[in-house]
Specification:
homodimer, alpha+beta, Glutamine Phosphoribosylpyrophosphate, subunit 1, domain 1, five-stranded antiparallel β-sheet, 5 helices, 14 strands, UCP009120_prtse (chains A, B), Proteasome_sua/b (chains A, B), Ntn_hydrolases_N (chains A, B)
Chain lengths: ~240, ~240
């Protein structure tokens, strides 16, 4: 499995992905699930993928070679807007389905893929999209400032409670790491290392891209700090008087 | 959906179930998912159910009428041990499958049911079992002191982090309520009111059975307290120096 989460904040984007891939418990490996297309000062796009690895890699390869959209071949470096970029990723997904979908279904392999696409292209607004296997998509809004793909349930409660569109980038980074930590602890099919990307709205370049490994001092500190805080927190809840 | 959780603690059992039942979003109602069989001073058994409501009600009805196990008809009030009680519930599930399973499958309705059975019968140890649709089951242990059925992922991280077999009953109650609160906030198909049961090991009677409604002062306080604590907790995590 996979867990990827993207935050669409007033100040910018925070994107986080794990790297575990498994085809059965005895076939586990690490793959980056985060791809970027950057033209500094002009555009910054970040794509994260969950689902069948053969599909997600095929989608990314097609996007690099160019995908036909309304008669023209485009890449993420050439499309004119984030909406067109999301359509392009959707077209790439459909193109992979056209090639591989039928044979996969014959062999009872689900055509399963979902993607988060975040970024900004000069002249347009910063966007965050979630794309489905069918190539269609939804968009983050002020009311729903985060989107998740893959094994999303363990890490959702903290985001539901604490995250707002106005949350700062620093706090956003902490929250996605806490959300990921909850997932890592509860589900072995999501695994370290992690890929983190931070984008500041209006900048059109990557503010930070960081691979967080098992021995990353900050992440270890955050995990410990969060565990202690949770234990303290429930102990501070008054005892039920009726027990 | 449903969320039920049972804790198997040194001091006793804590069992919590929501009451939401839905057959589509426009067909939502409340049903208790918690059943008890108590012979005070001799036995206390508590059963909680998730899955298809027609199945879970049929299982409970059969258990009340008596189910054949190794040639004898028994109820939860007559079986000789908790292990036999779990086998009896399993036999009831299989008996419902024998009656309804084929027709359900013909109509593409999954035979989906899972149950938590906790309790103690005089002369034997206190036990907590999780039963599957096939009528087979697993048991809580010191290493795995909690079992969940239904929509379990949202509420798992807090239990993974904070719950031990040595956790006291007071703290156990707080933790299941926090775990349920996380689930209620993240998934609309799990709903209030809640049914809570607390059993003290060796007592063979119910220590507490409580229906927790929307306006339960303790639960409202706990929800507020936990929300504030979570927000404070992540704010106390140091900012990443590298951002």
């Amino acid at each position: 499995m996979t867990y990827c989460v993207g935050l669409w904040l007033r100040q910018g984007l925070v994107m986080l992905a794990d790297t575990r891939t498994n085809a059965g418990v005895d076939h586990i490996s690490s793959y980056s699930k985060m791809y970027t297309a950057v033209v500094p000062g002009e555009r910054m796009l970040c794509l994260m993928a969950a689902g069948n690895l053969a599909i997600t890699q095929a989608v990314w390869s097609r996007l690099q070679e160019g995908v036909r959209l309304d008669g023209e071949v485009h890449t993420l470096s050439s499309v004119g807007s984030m909406f067109r970029a999301a359509q392009l990723v959707g077209a790439a997904i459909r193109s992979v389905y056209d090639t591989d979908g039928e044979m996969m279904e014959k062999q009872d392999v689900r055509f399963s893929v979902s993607m988060l696409l975040g970024g900004q292209i000069a002249g347009g607004a910063m966007k965050l999209y979630l794309l489905y296997s069918a190539g269609n998509f939804i968009e983050a809004t002020v009311d729903t400032p985060f989107l998740q793909i893959g094994e999303h349930k363990y890490g959702k409660p903290i985001l539901d409670r604490a995250l707002k569109h106005d949350t700062g980038l620093d706090d956003g980074v902490k929250l996605v790491l806490v959300s990921m930590d909850s997932t890592l602890r509860s589900n072995l099919t999501v695994g370290m290392p992690l890929d983190l990307l931070v984008y500041q709205a209006g900048s059109h370049h990557v503010r930070l891209q960081r691979r967080i490994t098992e021995d990353d001092a900050y992440f270890r500190g955050l995990r410990d700090c969060w565990s202690v805080a949770l234990r303290d927190s429930y102990r501070r809840i008054p005892d039920p008087g009726w027990l």
